[in-house]
Write a structure and sequence with these properties.
35% of the residues lie in helices and 14% in strands. It is of the alpha/beta class. The chain folds into 2 domains: 50-301, Type I PLP-dependent aspartate aminotransferase-like (Major domain) (Aspartate Aminotransferase, domain 2, 3-Layer(aba) Sandwich), CATH 3.40.640.10; 305-431, Aspartate Aminotransferase, domain 1. Helix 5 (120-128) links the parallel strand 2 (111-115) and strand 3. The longest helix is centred in the N-terminal third of the chain and has 18 residues, at 3-20. The radius of gyration is 23 Å and the shape is flat. The model has no long low-confidence stretch (mean pLDDT 96).
Length: 436
């Protein structure tokens, strides 16, 4: 494409951005304040148009560049773009069942430690692989696994830990690393809500044997639909790629052939000698790839990540300060020790002495066009899909039930403005009777 054509496209994108996505004034009570959202501009639109003109569509040059840049940003060896964070979780855990891992491969009946106060697709891959989730309770204020419960939950069948950094708040990674080393456990680090956060100065997503991210529009960067699996050791590369790419044994990139230089010289399984390697399947897999247009958008979003993280932290701190005088009624969130989260949301647990219940507060905020969400599944064990599923519950889950009944969260995403945050704070004060 000539420079002149590129300049014309850029000019048209700028005009289209102003026409289709104009900024609008905030009017309290009339303008909706979403709990999450995407922030984008001319760079993302231009990237999407340029990738569309290349018309690669499936994974290609932009995907390779995005995967490389994401791995460097997080601090992992390789990154594999997929179509969602949920798919990333499925691939990451399933990769640990690969025969390529020998005696360390997870087998049906093995246990995986997790929490019930979380998102379903952190747990669903455990069940789908015939493994047993072991549920532990969380701490209020941080909403991550209770340290004592996590440590005492380990049993003779426990082989892995898989849990998320709730709303971006990291689990106790010192403890997780210690337990993984002592008991030879795998650690799948669900970082879908945590891109840009750190623990002891190290990036979240770089602690696990495998880690996962989501790029859904609600998350820290967006590609529309999208996610990624990151690995620390090359030993996981073949399994992750295979499970993502139909389960095939061949590792040729899309559009490539005979990378191994012996495409018709393999004999695997009970297939005849010389069976086309592109059609040999070494894992039970899926097609969970993403596409080049999404990756192009992701590259533009990665350039904004630092500013997004700064704004999320700033907005979280603003809400924390603005609601501090309501702590007689509201349990406000706090960071995990040694954590510096890139916050996904601002969690609030309504205390028993509050003049309004969680449901009353949420409904009143909704009437004021202020978006809220409950803390994901609340107690997953009480969700219709999880009733009767295999599990081991370690102890009681009192805080998990409190989360289910009394907790909600508000947005801190970069699109929120100070007038919006002020309106959110003022509204909660008014709903609680003007308490000061």
């Amino acid at each position: 494409m000539s420079p002149g054509t590129s300049d014309k496209i850029a000019d048209l994108v700028t005009a289209a951005m102003k026409e289709r996505h104009p900024s609008k004034p905030f009017v309290p009570g009339e303008t909706t304040i979403p709990v999450s959202g995407k922030v984008f501009g001319e760079a993302e639109l231009t990237a999407a148009v340029q990738a569309s003109l290349d018309f690669w569509l499936t994974a290609g040059p932009y995907t390779e560049k995005f995967e490389s840049q994401l791995a460097r940003t997080v601090g992992m060896r390789h990154s594999f773009m997929v179509n969602s964070g949920s798919s990333a979780n499925l691939i990451a855990l399933t990769a640990l069942t690969s025969p390529s891992l020998g005696k360390r491969a997870l087998e049906p009946g093995d246990e995986v430690l997790t929490v019930a106060a979380g998102f379903p697709t952190t747990v669903t891959p455990i069940l789908q692989n015939g493994l047993i989730p072991v549920y532990v309770d969380v701490d209020l204020e941080t909403y991550v696994a209770n340290d004592a419960a996590l440590e005492s939950a380990i049993g003779p069948k426990t082989r892995a830990i898989m849990m998320a950094h709730t709303l971006g708040n990291p689990v106790n990674l010192d403890l997780v690393k210690e337990l993984a080393k002592k008991h030879h456990l795998w650690f799948v680090e669900d970082s879908c809500d945590a891109l840009g956060g750190t623990y002891r100065g190290q990036n979240l997503g770089s602690f696990g044997d495998l880690s996962t991210f989501s790029f859904y529009p609600a998350h820290h960067i967006t590609t529309g639909e999208g996610g990624a699996v990151l690995i620390k050791k090359v030993a996981h590369k073949r399994a992750v790629e295979s499970i993502r790419d139909w389960g095939r044994d061949c590792w040729c990139a899309p559009g490539c052939e005979n990378t191994c230089l012996k495409r018709y010289e393999w004999q695997l399984g009970e297939l005849p000698m010389g069976y086309d390697h592109k059609y040999i399947y070494s894992h039970l897999g899926y097609n969970l790839k993403s596409g080049d247009i999404q990756a192009a958008i992701g590259l533009a979003q990665l350039d904004r990540l630092a500013s997004f993280v700064e704004l999320r932290r700033k907005n979280w701190a603003y809400l924390r300060e603005g609601l501090a005088d309501l702590e007689d009624f509201l349990l406000l969130p706090k960071s995990t020790l040694h954590g510096d989260p890139s916050w996904f949301g601002f969690a609030i647990t309504v205390k028993k002495q509050s003049p309004k219940t969680r449901n009353e507060i949420v409904k009143a905020l909704d009437e004021r066009k202020i978006g809220t969400r409950l803390l994901f599944g609340g107690n997953l064990l009480r969700q219709p899909a999880f009733i009767g599923t295999p599990r081991r519950v370690h102890g009681e889950l009192p805080n998990t039930d409190i989360v289910m009944n009394d907790t909600f969260w508000m947005g801190v995403w970069p699109g929120l403005t100070t007038p919006m945050l002020d309106y959110m704070i003022e509204s909660i004060h008014e709903i609680l009777g003007g308490a000061k």
